[in-house]
Amino acid sequence: MFTKMKNIDTAFRYVRGFTMLVIAGCIIISCYAVYKGFQTVSHMQDKVYILANGKAVEAYASERKDNIAVEARDHVKTFHKFFFTLDPDDKVIKTNITKALYLADDSAKRIYDDLKENNFYSGIISGNISQTIQIDSVSIDIREYPYRFRCYAGQNIIRTTSILKRSLLTEGALRNVSRSDNNPHGFLIERFNTIENKDISAETRK
């Protein structure tokens, strides 16, 4: 009788101990699953999917301070491409210049006004001239704010009978502004100035 009671008590302790281990294991597994779930959600929130040409392209979100130099260089390149890419079409010129002036302050507007007053754009249209730009490099100094930059580029002036190659060196500063559809990088070019713009070579078109 006492032996049976002892065996039952021992079996109960074993079952209770096993049950406690199972419960503890379930709690540990549940906590780990919750932790991994939060970690995965947090990781997914850093991803951005951009729709380009009908395809979803994965990108990663990051702090602005991690990409200041990259965004600043692209802002400068974008401005120069809009400002210096011209075709003999008044609508194209106005569209490109308008986009460029969203990215810079009145220092660029003054240059545009001077060129317009000197009939530069009228000459582009009447002479059927196209102007293209190739950005060689952009240097950004992010040690001090506003960020100073220099842009090294080349230009092709394409006329009916010839192609003129020119070198272009500009400088300016960048200050932070709010991002918008017209200014996605959130920078504004200040004190824009052309340091050098000289002829390199000319070739006759065949």
Automatic annotation (TrEMBL):
The domain of life for this entry's organism is: Bacteria
Instruction: Enumerate the UniProt keywords alphabetically.
Output: Membrane, Transmembrane, Transmembrane helix
PROSITE patterns xref list: PROKAR_LIPOPROTEIN (PS51257)
Q: List where the protein spans the membrane.
A: 12-35
Q: Do you know which NCBIfam families this protein is assigned to?
A: Bac_Flav_CT_K
According to UniProt, the name of this protein is Conjugative transposon protein TraK
